[in-house]
Structure formats: structure tokens, C-alpha cells
Specification:
Elements (H helix, E strand, L loop, with lengths): L22 H4 L3 E2 L2 E2 L17 E10 L6 H9 L13 E11 L6 E11 L1 H6 L3 H6 L4 E7 L3 H5 L1 H8 L7 E7 L11 H11 L3 E3 L11 H20 L19
Parallel strand pairs: 3-5, 3-6, 6-7, 7-8
Antiparallel strand pairs: 1-2, 4-5
Length: about 250
């Protein structure tokens, strides 16, 4: 059964990445104001005095062709965003590391998010790809573009195709190309009505990112908070906020 999401900021310190306390940890994923790139077998190198647990999660990025799935993965990882759109021919994975601090006990966790991105045409052609993306998935990001109303109206189909109502999966919606407001086909009223019907938060991304964290931090923190809450509930048998080990967190990347 899907757990009720925690109130924003109730589990992790959402502005911690702006504090002096976070600099030692962020320096492990940022070099000269640029995010470090991590391969599947790489991880941030931490000094012995920093006692940090790493929790691993698999995140599937779902959406129609052209909404910006590959660009979002690059944005969350701090990588160069493709200047031209191309259809992803199969499954592409991107690793994102993100540190958070728990509000209750001040414990710092490093999230390892393995983002799975698959082209829409490939999903239609090869029946095995969607089950592979959904296998042991911990969270799904459902994307639409503010400049493509059809992608917004397709959200319900995306949700129905990717998960069951009873699935214990974190679900977030991301509206891309929010900066192109002059060409927007989706209004704030549309977004509000969607949130009221589906009860899912909608995040907005768009514009260029020059090594900054301001735009991606809210989405990464929301993912972290809901994923950790989900693990706490699962391990504690329905008691949110109970102690849970890092080894119990997530299912991907092992």
C-alpha cells in the first residue's frame, strides 16, 4: 500500500545545501563550481572523519518523446544539456549523488540515484524495455512540457501504464520548459486542477543551469524525503520516522 507522503521539510532540512555545514559534503560532488560526473561504479570519495551512509535508489523518468527526459537527467546530474533533441534509442542510465541531512537526528545521508531514461518509440517497439525500467523501481518522475499540451493530457496514461495504485513507489510530476512561458500551452490553473485530482506534487524546471543547485535542489530534496520516508515505513512496519539502516534503503545500484 502506498504510504502518505510526509509534509515537505518534515524529514530532511530542505535548505541544508545552502549552509556552511554542507560545504564539506557538496565539495565531494562539485569541483570548481561544476558537478562531478560519476560512472556506474564510481562514488564520491569521503575522508574517514565523515561518517556518511549511502542509500541507493532506482528512478524511472517517464514521458512522451520530446518533453526533455534526457535533458532532465543531465540537469539533475549537473551535466551538459543536449543542445538538440534526439530520440533515446534504448535505455540510458545516469548516476546522481546528493547529500541530505535528517531533521530528527542530524544524520547525513548520501543518496545515489540511478536515473533510467528510455525513448518512447523504443518502449513501443520492444515489450521488454518498460518491465526492465519498472523492475525494482523506487520512484517514477512523470514528465510533461509546458509547451506541449498533449504531453500534459497524456500524464494520466503515463501514470496508468507505469504503475498500479497499490504500488509502493514514490511518484512526482515534473513540468519542463517552464522558462518558455511565452509559448506555454499549459496554465497554472491546469496544473492546480491536476494536483487536486491526482494528489501529486508538480515541480517546474527550465532555463540554463551553470553548475548551480538552486533549480534542481527542490526536486532532489523532495525525492530524498519521500524515498527515505517510504523506507522508514517499510522497515518499521508502518511507523514513519523510525530508525532505518542505510542497507535497507532503496533497491537499485547494487
Amino acid at each position: 500500500m502506498m504510504t502518505e507522503p510526509p509534509p515537505p521539510g518534515s524529514i530532511i532540512l530542505t535548505d541544508w545545501h545552502r549552509s556552511v555545514d554542507s560545504k564539506e559534503f557538496l565539495s565531494r560532488i562539485i569541483n570548481k563550481k561544476q558537478r562531478r560526473r560519476f560512472g556506474l561504479l564510481e562514488a564520491p570519495v569521503l575522508p574517514p572523519q565523515l561518517s556518511v551512509d549511502t542509500v541507493r535508489y532506482k528512478v524511472f523518468i517517464s514521458g512522451k518523446s520530446g518533453v526533455g527526459k534526457t535533458a532532465l537527467a543531465a540537469r539533475l546530474a549537473g551535466l551538459d544539456i543536449p543542445s538538440m533533441h534526439y530520440e533515446t534509442t534504448g535505455i540510458e542510465t545516469t548516476v546522481v549523488f546528493w547529500p541530505v541531512k535528517l531533521r530528527e537526528n542530524g544524520r547525513v545521508l548520501f543518496l545515489r540515484l540511478q536515473l533510467w531514461d528510455c525513448g518512447e518509440n523504443a518502449l513501443r517497439r520492444f515489450d521488454h524495455l518498460l518491465p526492465s525500467c519498472k523492475e525494482q523501481v523506487d520512484a517514477i518522475l512523470f514528465l510533461f512540457s509546458f509547451t506541449d499540451r498533449a504531453s500534459f493530457e497524456d500524464l494520466s496514461n503515463q501514470i496508468a501504464r507505469s504503475c498500479e495504485p497499490s504500488d509502493n513507489i514514490v511518484k512526482l510530476v515534473v513540468g519542463t520548459k517552464f522558462d518558455l512561458f511565452m509559448h506555454a500551452d499549459v496554465t497554472e490553473r491546469d496544473v492546480k486542477q491536476f494536483q487536486e485530482v491526482w494528489g501529486l506534487p508538480v515541480f517546474r524546471v527550465g532555463g540554463d543551469v551553470f553548475g548551480g543547485l538552486g533549480e534542481v535542489a527542490p526536486l532532489l530534496n523532495a525525492l530524498a524525503e519521500r524515498l527515505w520516508h517510504q523506507d522508514c515505513v517499510a522497515v518499521a512496519g508502518g511507523q514513519p520516522g523510525s530508525s532505518v539502516s542505510a542497507e535497507a534503503g532503496g533497491q537499485a545500484g547494487s
